Fold this sequence. Notes:
The protein is of the alpha/beta class. It has a domain at 452-559: 2-Layer Sandwich (GMP Synthetase, Chain A, domain 3). The chain is 29% helix and 25% strand. The chain has 16 helices and 27 strands. It has an 8-stranded mixed β-sheet, sandwiched between helices. Strands 7-6-5-3-4-8-9 form a 7-stranded mixed β-sheet. It has a 6-stranded antiparallel β-sheet with strand order 16-21-20-19-17-18. α1 (12-21) packs across α3 (82-94) and α8 (212-223) packs across α9 (250-257). 53% of the residues are buried.
Amino acid sequence: MHSTMPDDPLTIARILRHASSVHGSAAVSTWHGAGFHRRSYAEVGERAARLAHALRTRLGVRTGTGPRSGQSVVGTFMWNNARHVELFLGVPAMGAVVHALNVRMSAAQLAYVIRHAGDEVVVVDADLVEVIAPVLAGLSDTVRHVVVAGSPPGDGLDHLADFPGEVHDYEELIAGQPADYPWEEDLDEHTAASICYTSGTTGNPKGVVYSHRSVYLHALHVAAPNAYDLSARATAFLIAPMFHVNGWGIPHAAFLAGAGIVLADRHRTPAALARVIEEGRPTFAAAVPTVWAALLEELDARGHGTSSLRRGMVGGAPCPPALMAAYQDRHSVELLHAWGMSETSSLVTTSLPRQGLTAEEEWSRRVSQGQFPAVSRFRVVAPDGAVLPNDGVSAGELQLRGPCVTASYHGGPGSPRVRPAESFTPDGWLRTGDIGKVSPDGYLTLTDRAKDVIKSGGEFISTTEVENALAEHPAVVEAAVVAVPDERWGERPLAAVSLRAGSGVPTEELRDFLARRVRSWMVPERWTVVDSVPKTAVGKYDKRRIQDQYARNLLDVVLLDRRPGGGR
Length: 568
Ligand code: AMP
């Protein structure tokens, strides 16, 4: 029997049209330092239409459907703000591809990803022009137009004196354009919508290209109650930068569901984030663990109101259970784990405990990486390729496939897609590089990333387990554990910790505290106390940088006997 349902495409244009009409009174609220600038979804829709006209008629952006084939890529080098949302939805809705550039990437990596994605236009927030201008000066073979967003563009424009292409002011560009646009609602849903590059701690970043269909399905999954629970009664504070994994799917999901969005723009200090929560009254917020940890310090110190927050999502790296417990106990915020990666469109699992569990079972689900949704297929695989049972014990590499899981990487302009064997199995599964186990009820617990796990003698040490135990110490703000070479054991752990101001806890006390919580051979001999643990461009612990600093003797390392009570 044939289904009687039509093959009607799932497109971002549909999400944008729906949000700007049905949910036209919902809004993106952008913090400007002393209050919010509010833009309704109806206004976002109109401005996105003006933008689309300007991109097509004034900048020659191609949409893949017109007489000249091919889709143009429009890069953004921006903070989280309403204009960025306009581009995030408007560029794909017109049929072009949006590429949110990481504002903290090195100049060399930026040049690489702009060229590799083939960005023809780059839209830059005025106060970031200075950062990207030297990179753009050498990219005239790729980038034809730079559009400066925000006022005053004056200073920004001076920095672009060496850019040989055209420079425009965003507001001037879209002014006077028609406020409606024939959005590409019937585009082939497999058309590229956006591209995102992995953080790339080793080697060049790799590009994942999302389709309209994958973004739409992912948005449905993200908005669902088991995940971020976004509805027309919710307001989402997207703390994670929009350039990180397609904004965690939140702009699309919020528009689809009619949830409001709160954004902090360039105001990213813990104090600013706390004020945004207090005054923007979001019901939901999403950030990496280090940001939640810094925010906790601020909330504890100043007692900002968090009563609007019902659910917080923590992802991008493992969150210590102690941090989840602190939010629950001290601020009544339910922090849940979200696990995913650029390759999986961002979100896969969320750690909402199912019903019918004891308090203890519930907590074990809360602190896991979370439960798999129906949209993803998953399996845990042993090093010899055997698929392991989901018994909550057998650990191996997590592999995934599904409509929101990439099956290859972008090969560069005009080049075929690439499928490196270290990332994809011959039978088409994504190798996540994460090591973990899955319980019979589908909850994932990660023990480590394959490249972080410490091989000490014949034993494996989970850096996450040691970090989580250290995070339970009340004086510890951040704790990162990395493998360093050791003559006797091959590798041993080094702990890099930052401590609460004025706590003055001796390293021996941390060692003794840890020795009571983990197996004896997991306790590091090498300790370094730092003001702040080095972080990647998206705020995760930068383990490669810590290892490099150690190798170059740049760290102040204390050597301790690993037995409790032992000396230096
Ligand atoms: P990225 O594509 O930059 O977001 O990196 C994805 C990687 O971040 C995953 O493969 C995991 O190693 C890690 N990750 C993301 N979310 C979590 C989480 N909730 N718990 C542990 N690790 C995570």
